[in-house]
Design a protein that fits this description.
The complex is a heterodimer of chains A (about 150) and B (about 230).
Chain A (H helix, E strand, L loop, with lengths): L4 H15 L12 E9 L7 E2 L9 H6 L5 H18 L3 H18 L8 E12 L2 E9 L3 E2 L7
Antiparallel strand pairs in A: 1-2, 1-3, 3-4, 3-5
Helix pairs in contact in A: 3-4
Chain B lengths: L2 H23 L4 H19 L3 H19 L5 H19 L3 H27 L2 H4 L2 H9 L6 H4 L5 H17 L7 H22 L2 H9 L1 H11 L1
Helix pairs in contact in B: 1-2, 1-4, 1-11, 1-12, 2-3, 3-4, 4-5, 4-11, 5-9, 5-12, 7-9, 10-11, 10-12
The chains are: A alpha+beta (about 150), B mainly alpha (about 230).
Chain lengths: ~150, ~230
């Protein structure tokens, strides 16, 4: 994390889309990613959707989320990571997804690893002739479920 | 609204919005806290108006660290608007002449107007938006609906057609609201309601708050020009 002029210049370029924005919100509805994970070595090895949507959200919860919405915003960041992985694969995007799935799994299992290894895949949904199709476009290598990730 | 009042109000709003964003990261990992704890401290100082020029510059460098940490924006458009407002405030403080300061601040108002108009334009030229199909797709399979119940809105094509055209017409007509202060205020209330709806249905709470921070700039510009 040390300072370098090259890094400063490089990061300044990441700021360009903000200073000269395009504002083309929803100009087209692109294929939409879902993150699914598989616990290798678990008694039930099956692909599960990461953070599936709840059936309902109360008005009270919607209003609370106006000021406190960290999990949902993190999920939107993972959508960006999934799209980046397809457009220009980097270890950064894969690590972000791995680490956030791992963290949730450890929290859900009271600090214990639920299985020795973890994999994730990206399923993209899009409409073809009026029907929503699902295509697996990326599958990660298996990684050991470790409490301390590189985040 | 005077230039100084609009600038100060923008600083206060931006500081509060940044505090909200920072709070959402404080339970995150160490590498996030390294960025967001100093950002929260500087944002608090910005709200209270201490050394605003240097605070803005400090926040600007932290914005670079954020972009480096996440290799781009964390939350797409809302982060881009955050960086835009911050960059404009920083520039405004360090520009030497009042005329240049006003030009920079006016650029923020221009981008706010474009954020609506261009979004409306790209929709109206798309046949799927004009037919209501695009909005149906947003509800049917995009990552945004906050619940399965909200996703169920995809089964109401007539409602979504009306909603699509309402959004398109509002976005395209927004620049006309600049003609007078009352029409601008109406335009901004409609815009805020639009962002609020998006926040409730699609969980885009950060968009709502950060777009509000740019409203003083357009209120000032309208007063300055018309």
């Amino acid at each position: 994390m040390g300072f370098s002029l090259a890094r400063l210049v490089q990061d300044s370029f990441l700021l360009l889309p903000a200073v000269v924005p395009s504002w083309r919100f929803f100009d087209e509805i692109a294929p939409s990613p879902r993150v699914e994970y598989l616990l290798l070595g678990h008694e039930q090895e099956e692909w599960l959707e990461f953070r599936p949507r709840p059936e309902k959200i109360s008005i009270f919860k919607m209003l609370r989320r106006m000021v406190w919405n960290p999990t949902w915003n993190e999920s939107l960041f993972l959508v960006s990571c999934a799209e980046r992985l397809m457009a220009e694969p980097t270890d950064h995007s894969a690590n972000e997804i791995f680490d956030r799935i791992s963290r949730d799994l450890f929290v859900a299992n009271k600090g214990m690893a639920p299985a020795p290894f973890l994999k994730f895949r990206l399923v993209f949904l899009y409409r073809v002739n009026g029907i929503i199709e699902r295509h697996v476009t990326y599958q990660s290598e298996a990684r050991a479920l470790e409490r301390e990730g590189p985040l | 609204m005077s230039f100084d009042d609009a600038l100060r109000l923008t600083e206060i709003l931006l500081g509060l919005v940044f505090l909200q964003q920072c709070a959402e990261h404080l339970k995150g990992t160490v590498s996030e806290q390294v960025i967001y704890i100093p950002r929260a401290l500087l944002s608090g100082l910005l709200v209270f108006g201490f050394f605003t020029s240097w605070i803005c510059l400090g926040l600007w460098f932290i914005a670079l660290a954020q972009l480096h940490r996440f290799q781009g924006p964390y939350n797409g458009g809302s982060d881009r608007m955050s960086h835009l407002v911050l960059s404009i405030l920083t520039l405004t403080h360090f520009l030497p002449e009042q005329q240049w300061k006003e030009l920079a601040f006016g650029y923020l108002a221009l981008q706010l107007t474009l954020s609506y108009f261009i979004s409306g334009w790209v929709k109206v030229v798309n046949p799927e938006w004009r037919a209501g199909q695009a909005l149906q797709d947003v509800f049917r399979y995009s990552a945004y609906p906050v619940s399965e119940q909200v996703r169920g809105w995809a089964d109401h094509p007539r409602l979504l057609l009306v909603m699509s055209w309402s959004v398109i017409l509002f976005e395209l007509a927004f620049p006309l609201s600049l003609l007078s202060q009352p029409t601008l205020i109406v335009g901004l209330v409609v815009a805020a309601t639009f962002h609020f709806t998006n926040a409730c249905l699609f969980g885009l709470n950060r968009f709502f708050w950060i777009w509000l921070t740019a409203y003083p700039s357009i209120l000032w510009l309208q007063d300055r020009i018309f």
